[in-house]
Amino acid sequence: MAQCNIKVDLWPHMLEGFKEKMVLFILIFLCSLLQANCYNINDGIRLSRGLQIDEISLLAPAWYVSLDIRPYGNIPYWSNVIHFTADGTNINTHGSRVPAIFFKGKSRKLHICNPVNSDRNYCFNSEPLILNQYTKVEIKQHQLSDGKFRLEIKIGGESVHSVINDKARFFGNVKVYRSDPWYPTANALIKNLVYGNLPYEFKLAGKKQINTIPRYHEVYQVSFDIKPEAQATIPNNWRSIIRFSIKGNKKVYGSRVPAIFFHIGDHRLHICSAVSNNQNYCVNTPQSLPTNRFTTIKIIQNYNEDGALIYRVFVDGVQLVEVVNTHPRRFKDVKVHLTDPYFKSANATIKNLIIKSDLGDTIITPKKDYEMTHIPFIGLQWYLSFDIKPTGTASSLSNILHITKGGDESRIGDRVPSVSFLPGNSIQICNSVGYIKSQCFESAINLTLNDYVNVRIRQTLDVKNNSYKIYVELNNSVIYNVWNDAAREFTNMFLYVSDPWKPAAKAEIKNLVFQNLPFGYTYDKCNEELSSDIDCSQYQSLSGFRSVEGVCNNLQHPTWGAAHTKLRRVVDPEYASDGKFDTPRGFPNTNPVLPPPNAVTQQLFDVENQNSGSIKKITTLFMTFGQFLDHDFTETPHQYCKQKCDVSNSWQYPCFPLLFDTTTNSCSANGRSTAVCSNRAYLSPRQQMNALSAFVDGSQIYDNRKAHFELLRDSTDGLMKITKSDGLLPVEFAQGENGCFTVGGCSLAGDFRVDENIALHTMHTLWIRNHNNIARQLKSLNPTWSHDKLFNNARKINSALWQHITYNEYLPVLASIPAYQGYKTDVDPSITNVFASAAFRYGHSLVPNQFEQLNVGFNRENDPVPLQDAFFNRQLINDRGIEQTMRGLVGNMSNNVDDKFSQAIARKLFLPIGAVGYLDLTALNIQRGRDHGLPGYNTYRKYCGLPVAENWADIDSIMVPGAAAKFEKVYNHPDDIDIFAGGISEKHVTNLEIGPTFNCLIGQQFKATRDGDRFYYENPGVFTAQQLIAIKNVTLSTILCLNLNSPGKPAGLVSIQPDAFHTPDANQNTRKTCSGNAIPKLDLTAWSEEQVVVPIQPIPVKDQESNQDNHIGNVFTENHDNDVGGSINSHESEALSSINDALTNLQDVLIKMKQQFHNDDLLNNLDEDIVEETLHQSKKNIHQRLKDYIHSKKNVESDIEGESVHVKDDNQ
């Protein structure tokens, strides 16, 4: 049959006139005469009579088939759409139609058949399908809670028929036809064809042969889960579970490869196989299997790195035996029995039976005319991969492998592809391209003797151009590509290693894989990752300042930590076991079977309607700071799902809805995170992107996008844009403009999530005000500095202050990391996927149900703002400013980090009060983790070196009280627990806000982000010693006092506790006035270009005493002789400078406090006792700093006036 893939959407320029339209009409007409496949490639696939597209080695008792069908013409007679047959016939046996879909004659009604009970041809007739419109058809046979199997048919998303099938069974070697050889082909297009096995539990009974494996290689894997039936008396004989055999019980080598039994009189396993010329090599499990749960058995035989074939047996992941098989053999026609013909059946239930017999790691030496396998069908998208090692140098063209219809190059399809060595061991790859029988590419590189190289050849659809392309890769690098505008399908193909027409190549190959790829192989939409080909010299003009995008921070690895790079993995991703490396865990009709996220969260997490408070007195500011910090280094782009939950295509990409339960279609709509573009989509695991730089660099203040970075800047004096009248963020778009739905308008800020809630908005405003305050101070100190120099230095200082507060005030409350040891070029600071998608979402449990609105005396000024009203509501900021909300954040406690969440987070996320709907952020966290391929909780505990939870008793010892019982109700096994659900429910590490798993994952990330940052503020050379002292003197309370009080305006903040992340108390964290010395000041004199930096020298102790009546600030003088001798170190200089500043500021505070004491508006509710206490605390502060300096001398003796004086303790 000819094929004519007319891609109408590529020809718009041809349709302008009558003549051009006639050309297109004639082409279509000719295709019709030739009965060719004329269709838009993206519009589905036509059917072809007798076209076998696949063979399923084992179809389980539970399975599903799903496809979209579009009838496009008359249906004059009975015709076939798709047919699954286990015996290769139309209707001869119980497995002839498993299932088959037809159109009834002279109608568009579907006729769907499947064996049910004793009826080998149980059929159902549907209502007519709509002409020229796709309808989703779903057929599945699934297991009910009582163990029975039900066959169900859905059309258009609605269940139209179901029936109990009491004789559900396994079928082997099931051929898949699109359409079958026995009926005319239906006039229909199909797309989105998906089929596979569903979870099941199968009770062993009788003696059933379930499969015959034509080629059983020496590399194989057999695995299953088994649960013995509890019995009062266990039979005193061998009982068969499963057997792989060429013939006989155990009389030949191959009778048991393997065979598995229950031991006589107990439930120990007796596992036998053919190993090293022993046809009955057997091992026993040391104990009987438990009867109250499933045990996982895995038998694997494969090659190790040294080429030895290793036979291994695992029970629940524990290796029972490992032995070299010195006598490997391949077998033909191996029969698979549940249970075998020679013994009675075991009383047990099995599930998750997996049989793999392929070349795997087998090392193959090419031999002339060696036909390795038959490939029944090659589709439009396919993939070939293998590793090759030349063992000699080719002197002439010699073949490595060849996929062909039967000839060398006599027709199209004889090379799909052919791979050979040219003289010298360069590679020649030939393929049928378009109407060319053999188009060849020759690599310019000779492969190195005895070194393996990976070769990949694939043909995939380029969605943008609606055409197919062939790619050739060596070691992951594309070395050749060519368009194949006449791509076609092939049947009855043969794979040779090597072919009959050329000498065999001198080589070894391994990891040989050929497979058809699913329709829609290329990611429809994806994010292009930042190219690693970056010339860092273009950033030299920055002269010590960060790039906007974070590139070239690491000069050896320019993209490490940069924006628009993929999230880093600490463990391999785990997607559903459908072979696509893309389908999320928990996706319908896949393994493992996981509960819907909403079902998980409703069972595990409690909902709070009122703020419950924090045991450790954490303020709400800690929560908001954490969210603002998260928006500094994580943003994963995602796609929007526009489908409703109750329609048939609600699960079509990019939709990944959050089901409420397993019995209804009710759900919350959700779109998947956009994939990182990949030339190996579905062949290697899907990855996700971080749109932000990974550093604690203030990206959310300044933006990582160059254009927006410039848009945020004011035109003069290094400032950022802010409203002059009230110091608020500018409005970028009014509500309703350019997609803005925020009440009061969308704000112009460094991160688009700025208006997500009013507390987050206040943090954005605070730090932009801080930038401008820094810029103004720098301008005052350096009047000649340019606009750019002021801006760049203000940004650098602001980012350093942000880093300092993050690592010295925020992080110690949350997680533990070791002390800073300097910048490390080999540390990748990129954000990990588990950090962004699970661990750092811990803060969602801190979120309150409402935000308090307080006055300067920390009393309620307005009613609290419910969280639901605080979502995307800038109008509150427009009306009140940020001060009320910020005082509420500082003055009130957050919630605990635990398994309890506020109502607005766990049920009504982003929904206004009174709105109908449901969105649970905790369920979204779980779904996002599955979407990103995050493995289960136990995998991360193992990675962190923590004990894994093997049972529910282990969970009880790890989790908060009562959690284990909840987890057991939701999950089948601790291995299934989602990482967010497990991590948030752990008992806390002492003195920290999180448990050990999140402490590990969060701590490692912050350490990498710090150690892998060349511009980290403590890295020597980033700042001078004096500048570093000034930065380290600042606290978050400094930032709040500085930026909530503006000259000429009412005070926004009169007093604050020194530790802003903890509520004030009467002991160590009493509130202090912003104008006093207890709250440190931001002093930028170290950035003055006119400043002469002279090393600070200490004066003798007696001089300190004799000068005590002099000016209090002149304790250390720049020109003082070095009485002690030798230069002081940087730590001493830092301490002395800090003391000098404190003493100088004390004189100022004495004067200012006296002047301001009677200013009621400023001091508000403060009384004279508070002023006196402030002075007292200042003196204590100075005293403590002196002690710190003296102790830093490490009891070094100094000669003063010829007398040895030991400096110590309080007398100084």
Gist?
This protein is an alpha+beta fold and 1212 residues long. The chain is 22% helix and 26% strand.
Helix-strand blueprint:
Layout: H1 18-33, E1 45-46, E2 52-59, E3 63-71, E4 79-85, E5 100-103, E6 109-116, E7 119-128, E8 135-143, E9 149-155, E10 158-165, E11 171-177, E12 188-197, E13 202-203, E14 208-216, E15 220-228, E16 239-245, E17 259-262, E18 269-275, E19 278-284, E20 295-303, E21 309-315, E22 318-324, E23 331-338, E24 344-345, E25 348-357, E26 371-378, E27 382-390, E28 398-404, E29 418-421, E30 426-433, E31 436-446, E32 453-462, E33 467-474, E34 477-484, E35 490-496, E36 507-516, E37 526-527, E38 565-566, H2 597-604, E39 606-608, H3 620-633, E40 658-659, E41 667-668, E42 675-676, E43 689-690, H4 699-702, H5 706-711, E44 731-733, E45 746-747, H6 758-781, H7 787-814, H8 833-837, E46 850-854, E47 860-866, H9 867-870, H10 875-880, H11 883-891, E48 900-902, H12 903-906, H13 921-931, H14 937-943, H15 952-958, H16 963-970, H17 979-984, H18 996-1011, H19 1025-1032, H20 1036-1043, E49 1055-1056, E50 1072-1073, H21 1101-1106, H22 1130-1156, H23 1160-1163, H24 1168-1192, E51 1198-1200, E52 1203-1205
